[in-house]
Structure of Scavenger receptor class B, member 2c:
Amino acid sequence: MVLKSCCVYSVGVVSVLMLILGISLVLTSVFPHLVQSMVKKQVVLKNDTDAFEAWKDPPAHIYMQFYFFNLTNPQEVLDGERPAVVEIGPYTYEYRPMEQIDFQDNGTKVTAVNTKTYIFQRNMSRGPESDLVRTVNIPAMTVMERFKDNFVEANLISAYMKGTGQGLFTTRTVGELLWGYEDGLLKALKIIRPDLDDVFGLFYKQNNASNDGEYVFFTGQQNYRDFSRVDMWKGESLNWWTSDECNMINGTIGTAFHPVITKNDMLYIFSSDLCR
Ligand SMILES: *[C@@H]1O[C@H](CO)[C@@H](O)[C@H](O)[C@H]1NC(C)=O
Ligand SMILES: *[C@@H]1O[C@H](CO)[C@@H](O)[C@H](O)[C@H]1NC(C)=O
Ligand SMILES: *[C@@H]1O[C@H](CO)[C@@H](O)[C@H](O)[C@H]1NC(C)=O
Ligand SMILES: *[C@@H]1O[C@H](CO)[C@@H](O)[C@H](O)[C@H]1NC(C)=O
Ligand SMILES: *[C@@H]1O[C@H](CO)[C@@H](O)[C@H](O)[C@H]1NC(C)=O
Ligand SMILES: *[C@@H]1O[C@H](CO)[C@@H](O)[C@H](O)[C@H]1NC(C)=O
């Protein structure tokens, strides 16, 4: 009797152990794989899926933050010293939903444009858009470089800059630097060079409700790793830069990535802002 109950007891222990082993096996290997394969199937850009809605109009806000370097020693720089700058920022803007969405090639690709609406977020910025920044006078530098071999224009530029007290540096508001301001020198040059645009801004023409052209994305239907990856931009692969390597379009536009990412995965982002 004693032996028997001991046997029953050990059989019981063994079965409990087996059960625990079984459960942990399922939990550590089979279960995650199951979840992963379900996720891989679910995360596809397809009408009326959660993944599609989140890609079209991301539930998390997307911000663009700008930082500027404020020059503190312009006179010394002109005398040959190193520039001393103070970083100021961020100046934060929120932007972009996807528009004009159209599925292609049996749902393996989707075309869309990315209309950018920049809305200034005062509460996430260092100061208002009217903060002043002293920085390089980019229009002046650009025209000086462009017309340096052209005697007449070079003299005109020099005379204009002396006459108006413009130098190599300029102090402008954050809003002007980003979204554009009418530059006196460019305006004066426009009289002899009508093709010049007299407005300068780092994001001039990227402004409101403009888009950067049509994108073709992979939906991830064929391979989960292709989820929201950029296939083409403006109807072609890039020809902006001079080498094939720089013209590669790799990765997503940065608002979404494929599911099941490991620590060793390399994620690529394509930003059309660099092509300008
Ligand atoms: C998604 O489906 C709805 C109707 O179910 C349709 O109105 C809409 O145009 C579709 N969207 C796309 C991008 O095909
Ligand atoms: C779409 O699917 C149909 C049927 O599966 C096939 O005949 C057709 O060639 C496919 N078209 C494209 C563009 O892949
Ligand atoms: C862009 O347009 C929106 C609404 O039309 C406006 O609130 C916002 O201030 C504009 N942004 C810029 C940078 O002009
Ligand atoms: C900033 O203000 C906007 C409304 O103007 C609000 O939606 C947003 O949550 C605020 N952000 C922070 C970080 O307070
Ligand atoms: C940047 O420098 C200029 C010139 O010294 C100054 O007027 C301006 O207030 C500075 N901007 C900020 C945001 O501190
Ligand atoms: C990047 O894209 C190019 C094609 O544009 C492709 O040849 C290359 O293999 C891609 N590189 C990576 C790391 O995905």
Remarks:
- The mean pLDDT is 82.
